[in-house]
Amino acid sequence: MIVIWSTQPAIGNITGRETLDAALAFAAYDQPVTLLFSQLAVRQLLPLPEANLAGAKNIANLLKALPMFDIEAVWVHDKSLQQCQLKTEQLIGEPTLVSDQQIRTLLQEANHVIRI
């Protein structure tokens, strides 16, 4: 399993798109992929109707399409979500809320971890 761990906000850079591009590339070669969002990267999962005006690409449609590419494991760090004062209901899709311990377990079980 490959874990792609995003920690950077989408505004002002292209890390959100890079994260999804990497996940799609691995999935195209039948590699199991888990996306993990923590720290300010949890904001990448917010719907941004005017993302281009904010300096970011709107990746909402791509996030919604991930299950079509067999990417169904999208995890969000619970403490990061709290620190950003967000709730899971505000996020695109249906990401799984995970604790520090669950992240440690995920990282130990992963064959490869890519931190973006």
TrEMBL record:
Q: Please give the superkingdom of this protein's source.
A: Bacteria
Any Pfam family matching the protein: DsrE
**Per its UniProt record, what SUPFAM superfamilies does this chain match?**
DsrEFH-like
PANTHER family associated with the record: PROTEIN TUSC (PTHR38780:SF1)
Q: Which family does it belong to?
A: Belongs to the DsrF/TusC family.
By what name is this protein known? DsrE family protein
Name the species this protein comes from.
Answer: Neiella holothuriorum
Supply the source organism's classification. Answer: Bacteria, Pseudomonadati, Pseudomonadota, Gammaproteobacteria, Alteromonadales
